[in-house]
UniProtKB/TrEMBL annotation, chain A:
Protein name in the entry: Sulfate transport system permease protein CysT
Its job: Part of the ABC transporter complex (TC 3.A.1.6.1) involved in sulfate/thiosulfate import. Part of the ABC transporter complex CysAWTP (TC 3.A.1.6.1) involved in sulfate/thiosulfate import. Probably responsible for the translocation of the substrate across the membrane.
Protein family according to the UniProt entry: Belongs to the binding-protein-dependent transport system permease family. CysTW subfamily.
PROSITE patterns in UniProt: ABC_TM1
Main location: membrane
Entry's Gene Ontology cellular component terms: plasma membrane
Residues of the ABC transmembrane type-1 domain: 92-287
Compartment(s) where it occurs, according to its Swiss-Prot or TrEMBL record: Membrane
Any GO molecular function: ABC-type sulfate transporter activity
Organism: Nocardioides caeni
From TrEMBL, chain B:
Residue intervals passing through the bilayer: 15-34, 74-94, 106-129, 141-165, 254-275
PANTHER family, A to Z: SULFATE TRANSPORT SYSTEM PERMEASE PROTEIN, SULFATE TRANSPORT SYSTEM PERMEASE PROTEIN CYSW
Cited Pfam families: BPD_transp_1
Quaternary structure annotation from Swiss-Prot or TrEMBL: The complex is composed of two ATP-binding proteins (CysA), two transmembrane proteins (CysT and CysW) and a solute-binding protein (CysP).
GO MF term list: ABC-type sulfate transporter activity
PROSITE patterns referenced in this protein's UniProt entry, alphabetically: ABC_TM1
InterPro entries named among the record's database cross-references: MetI-like (IPR000515), MetI-like_sf (IPR035906), Sulph_transpt2 (IPR005667)
Organism listed in the record: Nocardioides caeni
Keyword Transferase set for record: no
Protein's name according to its UniProt entry: Sulfate ABC transporter permease subunit
Xref: SUPFAM superfamilies: MetI-like
One annotated Gene Ontology cellular component of this protein: plasma membrane
């Protein structure tokens, strides 16, 4: 479901939408194409833009501003105090460590899965390709329940992950499975066979070919997929609600900490943690934007 | 593309990787999914009945029907809103030139990366009657958002906002403006151009985005959890019902509801893959 995400090769752009556009204010009549593809706003589209911006502000920007406002209300000292409070800090550290471990595993396993799905051919491969998307398609609370049905209190294999850090790790691994796979897959499909042939004919072993020829072109995709997965793991909530026992210092993660703050009527505390998560989200999309633009330039 | 010799060569590593991937996906995804089916139709002990009859009975409980009705209503409205908004904003971002256009195109992607809990918190801090920035003002004109269905719709619309845009923008960029320019030079109005030229070419992207938004809206949990009172017959959506029943030791009901949502998501996946085939033939 992420095929349209950043790492896929950018679609062909209409010619002429390049340099020169910015410095030249449109002098032509309204509705006409200024510099190949970008129209000037007409009264109708201007009105549409206004309506869209109002709705976007009401739905997204103002509420997010309210979070920042609430976090800033008590000043820097109280914001910092909340985050460095031992219990909150433990939750943040656990979240970051788990997300990092999951990201490392995904960077390796996701690449391998993408490789097998693209290069190998065997019966049932198409089914596996659909299976990759299931963790995305499932509602998060259902994802938690799905894992609990196998690894929960009624586990047929006798393993109970409820209220353990391994459980959190497993849940994050489940929900972030598609990110790296789906960003690496299209790049692998597009790879030119010629360079591999050339490497092989020059005497490179298959592993050397992979390491020196294929891997470098996959790195931006792996990076993009990993950062998406990391951001998701940091902010994950639904699948952890049933699995993480929410024990302070042990299995409490950032998003559940926000819920606990809210239930305890501590809005400032909730907002402080939320601002951190928001920051991670913003950094991620900016990083992805940069990666995809770099890839687009190189292509 | 014809397989080249180097790519089709198979060694022991090929088979090792294949077995690893199959095992990994089987243990992580397939087996747990299978167990959900088991728990739904053959619940272990607890005196709960098994089979399809018991499954239907659990789903026809009034509180369960209420939850699914509410989920359907919320999903419907959030999809309608996101489709209209999504197509509109995609056209504006791709076709028009205005200050802040690039920033806007990055910002509309933000809702997908924000934690659902933060989304819920943000809506509460902005619109709840007690503490929100605008809550009291809205309450004075008799409008309440937090704890009501409009609040649920807003939370759901927030998290699924970029899905339509993400599908439509690349297609709009790819088709370019030639046909649209030709139409308008021949005297078509803006609306005619949109309906006769633009819409047919982005049709599948829109459908695709709608299916993705629908799937996402049906399953939203975190944001809804925070803005909803979440009690039986009071703002309890299907996903909230699953959590509440599971934690209240009514696992069979939780599994029955979860099974319905699993079916809905798998259906969405199938539809999406069919559309993609349609789109590329």
């Amino acid at each position: 479901m992420t095929q349209t995400l950043v790492a896929s090769p950018p679609p062909a752009r209409p010619a002429g939408r390049g340099p020169g556009r910015a410095g030249r204010p449109g002098r032509r009549g309204r509705g006409s194409a200024a510099n190949g593809g970008l129209f000037r706003l007409t009264p109708t589209s201007g009105l549409g833009l206004g309506v869209a911006l109002v709705w976007f502000s009401v739905l997204v920007m103002l509420p997010l501003a309210a979070v920042i406002g609430a976090a800033a209300e008590g000043g820097w000292a109280s914001f910092w105090g909340t985050l460095t409070d031992a219990q909150t800090f433990a939750a943040l550290r656990l979240t970051v460590v788990e997300a990092f471990l999951v990201t490392v595993v995904n960077a390796f396993v996701g690449t391998v899965v993408a490789w097998v799905l693209v290069r190998d051919h065997f019966w049932g491969k198409r089914v596996l390709d659909v299976v990759i998307d299931i963790p995305f398609a499932l509602p998060t609370i259902v994802a938690g329940l799905v894992l609990l049905s196998l690894w929960g209190p009624d586990s047929p294999v006798g393993v109970n992950i409820v209220n353990t850090r391994e459980g959190i790790f497993l849940a994050l691994l489940f929900v972030t499975l598609p990110f790296v796979v789906r960003t690496v897959q299209p790049v692998l499909i597009e790879l030119d066979a010629d360079v591999e042939e050339a490497a092989a004919s020059l005497g490179a072993s298959r592993f050397t070919t992979f390491r020196r020829v294929i891997l470098p072109s996959l790195v931006p995709a792996i990076a993009a997929g990993s950062s998406l997965g990391f951001a998701r793991a940091i902010s994950e909530f639904g699948s952890l609600v049933l699995i993480s026992g929410n024990t302070p210092y042990q299995t409490e993660v950032a998003s559940l900490k926000i819920l606990k703050f809210l239930e305890g009527d501590n809005q400032a505390g909730a907002a402080a943690v939320a601002v951190l998560l928001l920051l991670v989200a913003v950094v991620t999309i900016v990083a992805l934007d940069l990666i995809s633009r770099r890839v687009a330039r190189r292509g | 593309m014809a397989e080249t010799s180097i790519r089709s060569r198979k060694g022991p590593v090929t088979y090792l990787l294949r077995i690893f991937v199959i095992t990994y996906l089987a243990v992580l995804v397939i087996w747990p999914l299978w167990e959900v089916g088991q728990q739904t139709f053959f619940p272990p002990d607890r005196g709960a009945g098994g089979g399809f009859g018991a499954f239907v009975e659990r789903l026809s409980d009034p509180s369960v029907s209420y939850a699914f009705n509410l989920t359907a209503t919320v999903a419907f409205w959030s999809v309608v809103i996101n489709t209209v908004f999504g197509v509109g904003i995609s056209l504006l971002i791709v076709r028009y030139r205005f200050p802040g256009r690039r920033i806007l195109s990055v910002l509309v992607d933000l809702p997908m990366s924000v934690s659902p809990v933060v989304v819920g918190l943000a809506l509460v801090l902005a619109y709840s009657t007690g503490q929100g920035w605008f809550g009291s003002a809205l309450a004075s004109v008799g409008f309440y958002i937090i704890g009501t269905t409009p609040g649920l719709i807003m939370a759901t619309a927030f998290v699924s906002l970029p899905l339509v845009i993400r599908e439509v923008v690349p297609v709009l960029e790819e088709i370019g403006t030639d046909a649209e320019l030709a139409a308008s030079s021949l005297g078509a109005t803006g609306w005619q151009t949109f309906r006769r030229i633009t819409l047919p070419s982005i049709k599948w992207a829109v459908v695709y985005g709608v299916v993705l938004s629908m799937a996402r809206s049906l399953g939203e949990f975190g944001a809804v959890k925070i803005v909803s009172p979440g009690a039986e017959f009071r703002g309890e959506t299907a996903t909230l019902l699953i959590q509440n029943r599971y934690t209240n030791y009514q696992e069979p009901t939780a599994y029955a509801a979860a099974f319905v949502l699993v079916l809905a998501s798998v259906l969405a996946l199938v539809v999406v893959s069919l559309i993609r085939k349609e789109d590329h033939v």
